[in-house]
Automatic annotation (TrEMBL), chain A:
Entry similarity comment: Belongs to the FAD-dependent oxidoreductase family.
Organism: Christiangramia sediminis
GO molecular-function terms, A-Z: oxidoreductase activity
Keyword Repeat assigned: no
Protein name: FAD-dependent oxidoreductase
Automatic annotation (TrEMBL), chain B:
Designated name of the protein: 4Fe-4S binding protein
One Pfam assignment: Fer4_10
Keyword Protein biosynthesis: no
Gene3D superfamilies (alphabetical): 3.30.70.20
Provenance organism: Christiangramia sediminis
InterPro entries registered for this protein in UniProt: 4Fe4S_Fe-S-bd (IPR017896), 4Fe4S_Fe_S_CS (IPR017900), Electron_Trans/Redox (IPR051684)
One GO term describing the cellular component: plasma membrane
Highest taxon of the lineage: Bacteria
Length: 428, 531
């Protein structure tokens, strides 16, 4: 019986632990300094908004861990002695391992802005960040959010529920335009503004100014404007949480470098989730993927390897989802913000400005490459099938209603979308 | 429920106090209630029709206005901001006040109607007298405590129905479903029975009959006085009696097969109607623990057994012994019940045994053996059927289940235990429909591949306490007997993962721990290894 130690109780680490338990009797220890029990990080915003309580974030009841013989240890790992196979904590005795899984997730980016460490300046990734946000916003009337990504728009929504005025600084010409094609990005920008957020495009922060108590009082932009605020949300992306591994033999780049089997350069040491970086990217995916389901798949995959079946990480067709205030977003396959060579986009938008789709296809072979869908739910199963079968866009559009996943009685738009596509072709 | 809250972020400020319009609306609604309260204290209003109208209109308008002030200036979309911060919806002081007031109301209604003016002889007084004009207008008779209750119940469903419609105006499934419960309450539960009472006269006296209130929820439907009334009312009466029997044995199974139990529980039923409208602000209070689920399975099925035994005993008690007078004698009936239950049991056992959990098997066998041996015991010893006499069983059921469970606890404790306590733990109708839904139905909640992020909105807002997330994060369909198909899990899901559907029974229940997005080999491996 081996002792498998997992650092990090997020979705990757916990999935690994659960699946190792399913397939073996190894001793399993999961270490986290962040929280006693696994919780769903993606739902932190709902606690702040009063939709849920902390307990609701926990996908498993507290008795689950003991019943499944998964030992939980609350501690911060300070250093790893890879030679002696030992973890050193900020407090307490070291812990020996036979196999080590590093699943420490992400921290939010700081890009060296002046004043980025002031009181009232923070991102939102961990439980501690949420507690801090709660304290920081107790007396906040105005906030500035820097960086237009998913956490940024979530934070804007959160703050708006507390009636805090939000100025949202985005580097791109429309929200998330580094990921979304321009028409969609513009639609989302408009929607964000309709929720009372002062969204500013093409604006980058310059400095964060301090008051006499070391607390933020304003942000200046590169255009020289000064925006008063009591909170600055740093939402310009996340990076692997690997600072504690500095000065070790573990090979790292942006993240911990792993091969397709999630093995690091040190034997018996593995890394999964947000903190791992693939030496060779899988398909068109980013080598560092900070996505919920990839963490889950890495956990499942590694558990197979650790229980005797060496298995490569193969995450299948790309997909993802998010929600921007009231607009749900799903994506299947690849839709690039600016079409790549031979990639063509067909865009349709509903008159309400709350629904849209973009289908990306090969302009020569007409092969379907991917879809972004806003305000219309779609079935992953169907798109997965179409992508695997290399279907053409014509097939996708003709059968789009099979993919619809909206609740019963919702308005359907397949005909309109089909017609719009045909009209577009004639114009082109 | 009594766990200590280790929560940090709940120190948060609730969204600011209610706005000016909401204050006026509250004042209006409370004024309406105040008139009713004054009437309860025997203040004699000079013009009852006028004051009753003022009161009821104020209550209705107050609620609707409040809802409008809450939602009209907001975008269509999910409206759960601050639910856990507000005293009224997070078991705070206001919630307890409301709970105590409601409970008190039910206690008076069921056990002390004389305090609100019911008089055995002579004209009503107090609150009930205030409702006389409306009752006379509808049925021609003076009001009873049940008429008062029915009127307020209907107003609650209508007014809070409008609130719900506003709240979920972006979701057509929710809107249509709510129109449906509002319609069935107003027409079937409230107006039609009152109009039917108008038809009654010499030699024709239909019992009060809400056609959608089906046995065993309507546990008294086959009691002697009702059956006598039905039979004495000629063809219409017989038709209604047959409809009552067909409802449970033919109509319900067909509809549940096609649509799941939601067609009843969240589209038609009055209890469900109140839970989905007035009870909606409390849906997140249901207990999601696995322990609660266990309790639920035992309690709700025990109530079902209780109601079957009670009804059997009651019908048995008024049947004759002589086959030459009427074919349905005590023996025929009792043997019929025994054979029916055995066949039902054998059928489920033969076709669906694999789908039953261990405790379901034990429970089913145990209860069948007890029931059959009680019948046998009765024949051997000649003692009372099911040990107690029928009247004792009937009275105990009416008191414990009909009044205490469904009324006082089921509705009175909305603000504390959530809005579906009765439906989940107590309703025998829900138990029957649930069995059908679990074993013989096309309905399921489909999960959208690997899109689930385990956020927990679905589980939190499931009024039946189903841990929806536990299924969704594994990519499994949700097929649970207790699901009433309210559709809120799907509505609150931020990633478009859940969809209520009627589809083929093939692959309806997918027990594999496998999620789309994983590659196929990995899935095979996981499933192989975990077997």
């Amino acid at each position: 019986m081996e002792h498998i130690v997992i650092i990090g109780n997020g979705i990757s680490g916990i999935t690994a632990a659960r699946h190792i338990r399913k397939c073996s009797d190894h001793r399993i220890t999961v270490i986290s300094g962040e929280s006693d029990y696994f919780f769903s990080r993606t739902a932190l915003m709902y606690v702040y908004m009063g939709h849920m309580k902390w307990d609701h974030l926990k996908p498993y009841e507290d008795w689950f861990w003991e019943k499944n013989r998964i030992e939980l240890k609350k501690a911060w790992v300070e250093k790893i002695n890879f030679e002696k196979k030992e973890l050193i904590f900020s407090l307490g005795e070291p812990l020996k391992y036979d196999k080590l899984v590093i699943a420490t997730g992400s921290v939010y980016n700081k890009f060296g802005w002046e004043g980025q460490d002031l009181k009232g300046v923070q991102g939102l990734v961990t439980k501690q960040d949420l507690i801090e946000l709660e304290e920081n916003t107790a007396h906040t009337k105005k906030a500035v959010i820097v960086g237009g990504g998913l956490i940024g728009v979530e934070m804007a929504e959160m703050l708006r529920t507390r009636k805090i005025e939000v100025t949202f600084l985005v580097r791109e010409q429309a929200f998330w335009n580094n990921i979304l094609p321009l028409p969609e990005a513009k639609m989302i920008s408009k929607h964000i503004r309709s929720h009372g957020v002062d969204l500013r495009h093409n604006v980058e922060p310059d400095k964060i100014l301090s008051d006499e108590n070391g607390r933020v009082k304003a942000v200046t932009t590169k255009d020289g404007e000064e925006i008063e605020c009591q909170l600055v949300g740093l939402c310009a992306g996340v990076k692997p949480n690997i600072d504690f591994l500095k000065d070790s033999n573990l090979e790292t780049d942006r993240g911990i470098l792993v091969n397709e089997y999630l093995e690091t350069n040190i034997p018996d040491v593995y890394s999964i989730g947000d903190c791992a970086q693939q030496r060779t990217a899988v398909g068109l995916r980013n080598p560092v993927e900070a996505v919920w389901y990839t963490g889950r798949i890495m956990g499942e995959t590694l558990a197979q390897t650790l229980t005797g079946t060496r298995t490569a990480y193969q995450p299948g067709n790309w997909f993802n989802s998010a929600k921007f205030f009231d607009i749900e977003y799903q994506t299947y396959g690849w839709v690039w913000p600016v079409p790549k060579a031979k990639e063509q986009h067909f865009h349709w938008q509903h008159e309400s400005g709350l629904k849209a789709i973009t289908i990306s296809y090969n302009s020569e072979s007409r092969e379907f490459l991917g879809i972004n869908t806003f305000g219309i739910r779609m079935r992953q199963e169907i798109f997965d099938l179409w992508l695997n079968e290399n279907r053409k866009i014509d097939h996708v559009l003709a059968n789009l209603k099979l993919a619809n996943f909206d609740p019963e009685f919702y308005d359907r738009h397949e005909k309109e979308i089909f017609k719009s596509f045909k009209n577009n072709l004639q114009e082109a | 429920m009594s766990r200590i809250e280790h929560n940090m972020s709940l120190t948060g400020d609730a969204p600011k106090a209610i706005n000016a319009q909401q204050k006026i609306a509250t004042f209006l609604g409370i004024s309406g209630l105040f008139i009713l309260l004054l009437a309860s204290f025997n203040i004699n209003f000079p013009n009852k029709s006028l004051w009753l109208s003022i009161s009821l209109i104020s209550i209705f308008a107050g609620i609707v206005w409040f809802a409008r002030a809450s939602y009209s200036d907001k975008h269509p979309g999910i409206k759960n901001d601050g639910v856990w911060f507000k005293s009224m919806t997070s078991r705070g002081y206001l919630a307890w006040l409301a709970g105590i007031a409601l409970t008190g109301f039910y206690v008076i209604l069921y056990f002390y109607p004389e305090y609100i003016g019911l008089r055995a002889e002579g004209a009503n007084t107090g609150l009930i007298a205030l409702f006389d004009p409306l009752s006379k207008l509808l049925s021609g008779n003076p009001a009873s405590q049940w008429f008062v209750y029915g009127t307020l119940y209907t107003i609650a469903i209508l007014a809070f129905g409008v609130k719900f419609l506003w709240k979920y105006r972006h979701n057509r499934y929710e809107k249509i479903r709510t129109f449906s419960v509002m319609f069935f309450q107003t027409a079937f539960a409230f107006l039609i029975p009152e109009f039917m009472a108008r038809l009654n006269g010499k030699g024709f006296s239909l019992p009060y009959y809400d056609l959608k209130n089906i046995w065993p929820l309507n546990y008294y439907n086959f009691e002697q006085y009702r059956v006598d009334d039905f039979i004495s009312s000629g063809t219409i009466g017989i038709a209604l009696l047959l409809f009552g029997i067909a409802s449970i044995f033919i109509i319900t199974p067909i509809l549940t097969y096609k649509y799941g139990k939601r067609w009843y529980c969240s589209w038609v039923c009055g209890c469900g109607g109140l839970a989905e409208t007035a009870g909606d602000p409390y849906r997140h209070l249901s207990d999601k623990s696995q322990f609660a689920w266990k309790v639920e399975r035992w309690v709700v099925h025990s109530v079902l057994v209780f109601v079957v035994l009670m009804t059997t005993a009651v019908i048995y008690s008024y049947l004759g012994e002589d086959a030459s007078k009427y074919w349905l004698t005590r023996d025929v009936f009792l043997i019929g019940v025994g054979v029916f239950l055995s066949l039902l049991f054998a059928g489920i056992w033969y076709f669906k045994r694999e789908e039953l959990e261990k405790d379901a098997r034990y429970g089913a066998i145990g209860y069948l053996v007890i029931t059959l041996s009680l019948i046998g015991f009765h024949y051997m010893s000649g003692s009372n059927l099911f040990l107690f006499n029928a009247e004792t069983l009937r009275a105990s059921y009416g008191f414990l289940i009909g009044a205490i469970f469904s009324g006082v606890i089921g509705t009175g404790f909305y603000p504390i235990f959530g809005n579906r306590v009765w439906c989940r733990f107590g309703c025998p109708m829900a138990a029957i429909l649930g069995m059908q839904q679990r074993l013989f139905s096309k309905f399921r909640i489909t999960t959208n591949g690997g899109q689930c992020i385990s956020c927990g909105n679905c589980s939190t807002y499931c009024e039946m306490g189903i841990d929806v997330r536990a299924y969704a994060q594994k990519g499994q369909n949700i097929v649970r007997s207790s699901c009433v198909g309210c559709g809120i899990c799907s509505a609150v899901c931020p990633r478009g993962v859940l969809k209520l559907e009627n589809g083929s029974q093939k692959n309806r229940i997918d027990s594999e721990d496998a999620i789309l997005g994983d590659n196929v080999d990995l899935l095979d491996l996981i499933n192989q290894k975990s077997k």
